[in-house]
Design a protein that fits this description.
There is one protein chain. The protein is an alpha+beta fold and 173 residues long. It has a single domain, classed as minor pseudopilin epsh domain (minor pseudopilin epsh fold). The protein is 29% helix and 32% strand. It contains one helix and ten strands. A six-stranded antiparallel beta sheet has the order 3-2-1-5-6-7, with helices on one face. A four-stranded antiparallel beta sheet has the order 4-8-9-10, covered by helices on one side. The chain is rod-shaped, with a radius of gyration of 24 Å.
């Protein structure tokens, strides 16, 4: 008598294999977006803190810009580390990337797996004015008297994170 597998047994094993493989592939794609979200959040937080560090490092140096900051371009999914010169450094009321005093130090693109999100107090620009440094935050097109937040989300909106910046210059994840 020959022993072997029946067609039913083979079909059951194949269907379980296909099911497990599809779960792993789906989980892998979702996991990749989740990892990209955490990496981008960390990178963005580091860039904001770098702008603050640059502002602190300018203490008593008259040849440097008024300060340093980060500008978020939501339409192009980019953010920029910049230095800013103004005729009167003590009275900066707005940061305009088209202003001749705006100088790009470094530019970053969001991962292709991510988008900027929306929410209350969404930061347009954060700027650190030495020597303290004083923190200036522009949210939703105007100057903010409090804190603001940068929102990030995966393209499929399955996960979202935010980076909060306070008037004291504290950066929170």
């Amino acid at each position: 008598m020959k022993s072997g597998f029946t067609i039913i047994e083979i079909l059951v094993v194949l269907s379980i294999t296909v099911l497990l493989t599809s779960l792993i592939i789906t989980y892998s794609a979702a996991g990749r977006a989740q990892v990209a979200l955490y990496i981008e959040e960390s990178k963005m937080g580091q860039i904001i803190l770098k702008a603050k560090s640059l502002a602190i490092a300018t203490y008593n140096d008259p040849s440097v810009p008024c300060g340093y900051g980060v500008n978020f371009n939501y339409a192009n999914a980019q953010y920029v580390l910049f230095g800013y010169r103004a005729p009167d450094c003590k009275n900066i009321s707005a940061i305009d990337p088209s202003d001749p005093g705006f100088s790009v130090i470094d530019q970053f693109d969001l991962s292709s797996l991510l988008n900027f999100g929306n929410g209350p107090g969404r930061i347009d620009s954060v700027f650190f004015l030495p020597p303290n440094p004083k923190t200036l935050i522009w949210t939703d097109g105007g100057n903010s008297s409090g804190s603001g937040e940068v929102y990030l989300e995966t393209k499929n909106k399955s996960a979202a994170l935010g980076i909060q910046v306070t008037q004291g210059g504290q950066v929170s994840f």
